Backbone:
């Protein structure tokens, strides 16, 4: 039950509700706890809206790259004095960000770095230091006017020795990821573990979860997984179980991130981990220290039976592992994805039985043999200070073998009835097993094409080359006007015609389509999103060859996305129906998406818009306005509609003094029929409002919708 509950909570934290009512995906919160020795860190995660089924969202991983612009803020909470706030060691705070930058710069092969672009010292907030971390972050973020965008992060230090996470103190830091390279972090007074915690927290900002371990009361070395949990009921995932990874429990050292999360986050140059593919038979490999340098120093392979991917690395006391890869933690480590959370890793150590404390004395294999739950073995042949040799023996995934009477190909049949054509190397690796000779497959073709297909009873198969056809004895295919289960389709921005054959997609022609009886052509559908907003758009053509920028566009609700099967959206520079605008007296260009969300474009984002769509509407003179009862500053035009500015944006305009009103003209307070919640319809759209704000605005008439 422990794993299932965790999986449910994590899925729920992937959902938040925007003011528009759209459900979008975000990453969960994390908290790091404090030594000495570090008390048990708990994987705190934010709960989401009710009624969302577990496993209802998918995660798409992207390579992490860019210079993350950090806004560093020290705050004076409502319960702390100026002297207590001044005691925050700003130099130590800056140094922790520098340490984290150096760490992730090295791990990413130079693609990632952190730069402090804003420092705000002693910002006075109405939040208290004993509030939950998320309440503090949200309150300070709102008061600062800070807005999260790609490659930005807000780091806040407060005058307190720990951080409260959902009612529990003793935490050394907490935060969450808002995207591949953006997020927020809350820290207490700097101390011994600040550098480690800051580096760990930016691992979360970059989308990683924790380095966990398998725990089994029966001592099993591994367990298969299904539906986000381990199948063996005696086993579960122990949070923070791998203290030899930076994403494990807090310690003074900064160990190397484990190879699973390294690969998952697309760190490094892509050559550090050898992909051995599916192992059939016995194969030997050499490992070199994971914290060292060089290509192919770690290994990943696919279990031929379970299809789970395992990672094998050598931990030696070099580089970042100089302090942690000692004693029983020096040697070969074996890992895989944590089934309850693909952003977390799971280490598979020699002794998986429960233990006391937060640091395991023996996470590495110095000798012996590890066996996967499906039966593949990893033998530790030898280990020196500079290398290790291992032998992997893959268990055959096939229960029997066969070949067709008129074909030289040999196939392996899996227990579920599916089969695969074996290469000679694969057949050799399997030890030349005996096979059964079966009748031939069926051969079919379309009357308007020379391509011959070898198909099974479902009309799925492969297109035969001349050599394949000859090997089968050049059988005469059965010809059809249009093979069952096949169809013609078109693509965006392409006047060509395509045919989905028994073997997949292929280029076609009008002549072939006419010869097939001019069947209906399937029009293209694409799912896209902007990098700067979470909304997913469905783009569907209304005519063959249509440009995707002129196709029909609709913003998907969560229900619509679910009904479509949760397709992974592609990030694009322009969605059809988006409108660009600018104020005549200001250089900034804004883009409003079909969902109604607006974004201040950077030059690269402007240039990413197709030339034909790169035009904007003149909004007239831009003005800076605010309400007397709020620190929010808006940039508006003649209609009093516009955008909310964060501090950096306001600063970029030269920090102009805004026109202040008790209530900005054109704005109002709103309630919805059947709902007691109060909202403020600001120049930038609906936001939640308090009764105090309503009173400060002069208690104007409330608009009912």
Residues:
């Amino acid at each position: 039950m422990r794993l299932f509950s965790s999986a449910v909570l994590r899925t729920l934290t992937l959902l938040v509700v925007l003011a528009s009512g759209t459900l979008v995906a975000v990453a969960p919160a994390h908290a790091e706890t404090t030594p000495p020795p570090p008390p048990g860190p708990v994987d705190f995660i934010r709960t989401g809206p009710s009624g969302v089924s577990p496993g209802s969202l998918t995660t798409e991983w992207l390579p992490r790259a860019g210079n993350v612009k950090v806004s560093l803020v020290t705050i004076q909470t409502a319960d702390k004095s100026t002297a207590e706030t001044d005691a925050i060691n700003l130099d130590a705070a800056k140094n922790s960000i520098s340490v984290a930058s150096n760490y992730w710069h090295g791990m990413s092969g130079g693609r990632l770095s952190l730069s402090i672009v804003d420092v705000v010292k002693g910002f006075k907030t109405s939040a208290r230091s004993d509030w939950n971390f998320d309440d503090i972050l949200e309150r300070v973020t709102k008061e600062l006017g800070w807005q999260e965008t790609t490659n930005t992060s807000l780091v806040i230090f407060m005058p307190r020795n720990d951080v409260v996470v959902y009612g529990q103190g003793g935490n050394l830091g907490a935060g969450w990821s808002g995207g591949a390279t953006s997020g927020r972090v809350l820290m207490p007074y700097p101390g011994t573990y600040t550098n480690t915690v800051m580096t760990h927290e930016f691992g979360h900002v970059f989308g990683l979860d924790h380095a966990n371990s398998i725990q089994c009361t029966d001592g099993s070395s591994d367990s298969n997984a299904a539906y986000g949990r381990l199948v063996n009921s005696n086993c579960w995932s122990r949070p923070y179980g791998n203290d030899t990874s930076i994403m494990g429990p807090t310690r003074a050292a900064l160990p190397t991130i484990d190879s699973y999360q390294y690969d998952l986050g697309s760190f490094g140059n892509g050559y550090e981990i050898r992909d051995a593919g599916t192992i059939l038979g016995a194969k030997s490999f050499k490992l070199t220290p994971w914290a060292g340098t060089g290509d192919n120093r770690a290994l990943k392979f696919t279990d031929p039976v379970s299809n789970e991917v395992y990672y094998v690395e050598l931990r030696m006391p070099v580089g970042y592992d100089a302090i942690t890869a000692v004693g029983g933690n020096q040697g070969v480590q074996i890992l895989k994805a944590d089934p309850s959370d693909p952003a977390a890793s799971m280490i598979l150590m020699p002794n998986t039985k429960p233990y006391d404390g937060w640091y395991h004395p023996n996470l590495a294999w110095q000798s012996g043999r590890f066996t996967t739950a499906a039966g593949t073995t990893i033998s530790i042949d030898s280990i020196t200070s500079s290398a290790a040799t291992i032998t992997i023996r893959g268990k055959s995934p096939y229960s029997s073998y066969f070949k067709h009477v008129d074909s030289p190909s040999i196939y392996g049949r899996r227990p579920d009835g599916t089969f695969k054509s074996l290469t000679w190397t694969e057949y050799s690796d399997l030890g030349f097993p005996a096979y059964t000779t079966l009748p031939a497959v069926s051969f079919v073709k379309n009357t308007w094409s020379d391509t011959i297909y070898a198909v099974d009873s479902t009309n799925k198969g492969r297109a035969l080359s001349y050599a394949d056809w000859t090997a089968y004895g050049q059988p005469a295919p059965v010809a059809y006007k249009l093979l069952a289960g096949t169809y013609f389709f078109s693509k965006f921005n392409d006047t060509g015609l395509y045919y989905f054959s028994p073997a997949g997609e292929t280029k076609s022609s009008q002549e072939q389509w006419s010869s097939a009886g001019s069947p209906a052509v399937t029009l293209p559908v694409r799912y896209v999103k902007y990098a700067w907003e979470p909304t997913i758009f469905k783009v569907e053509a209304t005519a063959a060859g249509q440009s995707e920028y002129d196709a029909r566009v609709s913003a998907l609700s969560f229900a619509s996305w679910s009904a479509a099967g949760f397709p992974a959206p592609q990030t694009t520079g322009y969605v059809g129906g988006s409108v660009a605008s600018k104020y005549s007296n200001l250089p900034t260009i804004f883009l409003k998406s079909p969902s109604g969300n607006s974004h201040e474009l950077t030059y690269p984002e402007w240039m990413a818009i197709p030339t034909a769509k790169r035009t904007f509407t003149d909004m007239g003179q831009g003005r800076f306005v605010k309400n007397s009862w709020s620190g929010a500053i808006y940039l508006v035009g003649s209609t009093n509609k516009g955008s909310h500015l964060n501090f950096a944006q306001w600063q970029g305009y030269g920090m102009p003094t805004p026109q202040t009103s008790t209530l900005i003209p054109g704005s109002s307070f709103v309630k919805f029929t059947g709902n007691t919640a109060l909202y403020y319809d600001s120049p930038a759209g609906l936001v939640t409002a308090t009764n105090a704000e309503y009173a400060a605005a002069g208690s104007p008439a409330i608009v009912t919708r």
Notes: The CA atoms of residues 102 and 460 lie 52 Å apart. The two ends are 44 Å apart (CA to CA). DSSP finds 13 helices and 50 strands in the chain. The first strand starts at residue 15 and ends at 17.
